[in-house]
Amino acid sequence: MDYGPAPESTKEAQAWLDQHERRFGLFIDNAWTDSSDTFATTNPADGKELAQVTQASGDDVDRAVAAARRAQPGWVALGGHGRARVLYALARLLQKHARLFAVIETLDNGKTIRETRDADLPLAARHFYHHAGWAQLQSEEFADYRAVGVVGQIVPWNFPLLMLAWKIAPALAAGNTVVFKPAEFTSLSALLFAEICQQAGVPAGVVNIVTGDGRVGEAIVNHAGIDKIAFTGSTEVGRIIRKATAGSGKKLSLELGGKSPFIVFEDADLDAAVEGLVDSIWFNQGQVCCAGSRLLVQESIEERFLAKLRARMDNLRLGSPIEKSVDIGALVDPIQRQRIEGLVEAARAEGCTIYQPACELPATGSWFPPTLITGASTSAGIAQTEIFGPVLVAMSFRTPVEAVQLANNTVYGLAACVWSESISLALDVAPQIKAGVVWINTANQFDAACGFGGYRESGFGREGGKEGMYEYMTALSEDARPALPVVESKGKAKPAGAPGPFAIDRTAKMYIGGKQARPDGAYTRAVHGANGAFVGDVGEGGRKDIRNAVEAAHKASGWAKATSHNRAQVLYYIAENLAIRADEFAARLAAMTGAKNPEKEVQASIERLFYYAAWADKYDGLAHQPPMHGITVALNEPVGVIGIICPNESPLLGFISLVAPALALGNRVIAVPSEAYPLAATDLYQVLDTSDLPGGALNIITGSADELAKTLATHSDVDAVWRHDGSLEGCAEVERLSAESLKRTWVGGGKGRDWYDTKQAGGRAVLAHASQVKNVWIPYGV
């Protein structure tokens, strides 16, 4: 028995194209432009032209941004319920025209009709339904936030409509207006969506769609009238965008590449795991950023599992994507096929074994068979490079520890799968994997209620869930920040205390790994008080001091594994020991800064330590209930090693306000205290030593903020850099330099911050910078 033909009708889709004379303009301010400068969009399955699409110009982007800016106040004024009604109407229209959207997507993209019909369209509608609910609840659930403003959104060609829904739905729900750029290869479903925006009553200018190549995306990224960029695409382009937006003040979220591990333990249901693997790597021809492209199978079952996998590959059907019984469709473009073929042939030349089932590729179009590669080393190009095609690389492991090491042996960190009948084993391994999403005994599950996004070079930010809404909002406390750093009024400087008979060397050392350390370069810098009097010397930190501090921070990984209760206790102890020496710290502050009321800053610092100690065991995750038989647990995990450049104003309070939240959530910190008044931080060494803080959890390096910030931003083993010293160019440089490893940044720009105001220096907005969300999908009862 064999499959008979079961083609989906393309009649309605062809009629829609003909209705537009197969030429499309841009959708700006609720109207269509003339289609003048156009290019062809083709069907990847046969190479035939579908339509001509407009190449937008810089002027077109200007007009789209202007329309979005005009429309944004009115869209906010419509209120949560008004926006919810519009989003609900969009969801209903997506459902009403689901078959038309599915066929258009298959014709334009090359993915199978089963995928567009059964996966993409239902999930796209679900996003608009879900975010209609967030719009309705915004005034209650996000009372301390506002819309960002005008958002530029750029998406790839692998999930054209679904990526549109992921981005436009939360942006509109929060009260933003958008300028949306679909991928050059796959613009048709976005243009069809523009039509239903008109039907749904989306006000003019709220949604603007501009098509074209990378020049259009570049114009959006660089446009001064855009407040946020949301990008999904390659890591290489993500780096370019990070550099381009550095210092602009634009909010940025990046969902980039991946090389996701698919881990199969010996006690797994092997048949189910094989089916999960098929869904993970050969779904959408492997053109999925979270595709399980690295199979890690326990050595004891490796041969048996691979035999089952090869047998399953032999039964995969490759052919016309419009056929309902086809498993694997066409690649999006011949260029993509050539790239994949080159990577596979390079692996063959390196001695890897290539397995491809016997299947006849169509004579026209872009096709590549499902491929299994074995025998690759962990450092091989095929094992490290994102292939973005139907190619799986397999290797084995012996123990769970080795499985985790192999899983994390990549610059990416987007997703992972863990297969085991032991829930204890699965839940032990999942948190150790450096990935934003982990699926247990399932694969490629998505839902609007559950956040999606990566770690490391897979980008930052989340899409979906409550955390995805925050990406499109700004805390109201940010609007209240002073335009410049706040300089306290000065009084008569108090003496730092009479020198003792042995007070010859007053050089404060570094604090690395829980011990005081001399600067590697053996240079010092003098610290002078408000009256110009010499107060003391501090070490001039350099690159090697940062290196030593990073090594110490990584050795202190146990701090991340400590219980939140334990971390809270340590912060309380620090506060307690600081309180005992309050007079001493007040005198030091007075001598350095000339503050009239230094006792106020010390007391505020003690309170801030109590504040973040209180948060340590209360910043909990969430348990989502997506439309599956199971739950998704959203875990707030520490970012890792954070470099922090502290402010000059309120040098003790500013230091504590940044270091305490990072420590509270389990991060290890390399802090650069106030360049002008560093002794407020170096005086803390004995406080830290007597407060049970593990060595390496907090490291303090004094010196030039500019030089140390550069070193932290370029260090590959630093996961995030915060800079809040009021230097506009310094903050821009941190963002620019961080692009190479795509580490997270949190900068204050040239503005100040009232460190006494808990709304500006505390709360969930700060804690969000100190954490990253991992969504663990746990099916049960099946």
Morphology call: globular
Strand order within the widest sheet?
A: 14-15-16-13-12-17-18-33-27-26
Radius of gyration, whole Å: 28 Å
Give the helix tally: 29
Q: Indicate the mean pLDDT.
A: 93
Give the fraction of residues assigned to helices.
40-55%
Strand tally is: 33
Tell me about the largest β-sheet.
10 strands, mixed
End-to-end separation:
31 Å
Relative strand content: 15-25%
Low-confidence stretches: 493-504
Structural class: alpha/beta
Structural summary, described in words:
By secondary structure, the protein is of the alpha/beta class. Helix content is 41%, strand content 18%. The protein is built from 29 helices and 33 strands. A 10-stranded mixed sheet has the order 14-15-16-13-12-17-18-33-27-26, sandwiched between helices. A 6-stranded mixed sheet has the order 9-8-7-10-11-19, with helices on both faces. Strand 24 and strand 25 form a beta hairpin. The two termini are 31 Å apart. 56% of the residues are buried. Mean pLDDT is 93; it is low at 493-504.
